[in-house]
Amino acid sequence: MERKPEGFEPFFIIYCGLALNWQKKKFVRMNHRRWTFEYVLSGTGILEIDDTSYMVGPGDLYILPFGHNHKYYPTSPNGWRKIYINCTGPLIEALLKTYLLLGCYLFKNCGPEIKEIFYRFYRKYHPAKTAETQDSDTLLFCRLAELLYLHGKTESSSRLTCVMQLQYILDRSADARVDLNRIARQFCMTPCYMRRLFKRYTGMTPYEYHLNKRIDAALSMLVSTSFTVMQIADQLHFSDAYHFSKIFKKKTGLSPRAYRNSQKGQSA
Fold first, then answer.
1. What digits encode the pLDDT tens for the residues 143-185?
2. What CATH number did the domain enclosing 256 receive?
């Protein structure tokens, strides 16, 4: 049974529970009116918050934020098993903001201490017991926020791995459209954070890196094929030949036609 706060509470547990969602069981909520923290015990699933999708699995923690739309459902054959906390109060957003977690909705491979905090809340409120002091709830939640912050700091090595994986994708996608927003979701990052991280390690944004790869491919195609400038622009997914030629000249100092002619002169 859900609990209701009596008067002002900086942090208040509405309900804790264990959930088993069977395959195809889908939850959709618009303008969520509470904060929900869920820890995945087993199984995999898809989480969508507003227009962003995430893949979640065992050991992952995700947040369903107040005031946002969300949808989630299991993808593993036997569904998934989760432990969750529904809560409310101004302390939640304040702590998430303090620990730079506001806007972060998925935390991969969380440690056993984070899992234990969920079970401590669960044991207290399920089955329902006489409520203890709210100070213990507040301290538990403060510890949870701190652990999520520390968890993010210890992932610095995995961030470098993500940069290397993105480089690998871009190196092999000169003639393909690259959806950086989708890749960011796969890496459980915001697109903005992924761009900053990539630039920190490479000195350029993913867009700039991919553009250089496309120009390199264009240089090769101008020499080794008889494709027209329009065909090359189309194959490398530039908006049109004019746009392609403008960027090509900016990068190389020559127009595509001038570059092709200069290479013919050298080979002769």
1. 999 999 888 776 655 666 688 788 888 988 888 889 998 888 7
2. 1.10.10.60
d(CA 203, CA 199): 5
Name the amino acid, one letter, at 111. G
Amino acid at 72: Y
Distance CA 39, CA 110 (A): 9
This prediction has a pTM of: 0.60
**C-alpha count within 13 angstroms, C-beta hemisphere, residue 227:** 19
- Cβ neighbours of residue 179 closer than 8 Å, sequence gap 6 or more: none
Q: What sign has the CA pseudo-torsion 89, 94, 96, 97?
A: positive
Same domain for 75 and 65: yes
Residue 245: burial class (beta carbons within 10 Å; 0-12, 13-18, 19+): buried
Shared domain for 31 and 98, answered yes or no, is: yes
Domain hosting residue 196, numbered range: 156-207
Q: Is the pLDDT of residue 128 over 60?
A: no
Assess if residue 6 is contained within a domain.
no
CA 90 to CA 175: how far, in whole Å? 49
Output b/e per residue, 15-30; b: 16+ Cβ within 10 A.
Answer: bbeeeebeeeeeeeee
Interior CA angle at 18 toward 13 and 21, to 5°? 125
Q: SS3 for 56?
A: strand
